[in-house]
Design brief:
2 domains, elongated
């Protein structure tokens, strides 16, 4: 924004945003934030890559706001999401 303000002297931030909106420029979608649960994070990342919103993913798996703001592991929702997104669960055991 600072570069744009330097390029268009005398214009305010609001004027620049309004003109960009009018011309059809949009911000790129932001990747989902990490939750600290690797399985949930990988499903959310894959949905983002498939251009699905977290709300859409919730509708597809039949949950209410689980992928929008997950606080626990819901295995049923994760399994359904993996099936929809073309993935499959895999178990990896660490050898000590």
């Amino acid at each position: 924004m600072t570069e744009l303000l330097e390029m268009f002297l005398g214009k305010t931030r609001s004027q620049i945003w309004k003109k960009a909106f009018h011309m059809g420029y949009r911000r790129p979608r932001r990747a989902p934030k990490l939750t600290g649960m690797p399985l949930v994070d990988s499903v959310r990342k894959r949905a983002f890559e498939c251009r699905l919103s977290m709300t859409d993913l919730d509708v597809f798996v039949g949950r209410t706001r689980y992928f929008v703001s997950p606080h626990h592991l819901d295995w049923r929702a994760l399994q359904r999401a993996m099936t929809i997104l073309g993935g499959r669960p895999a178990i990896s055991w660490s050898n000590e």
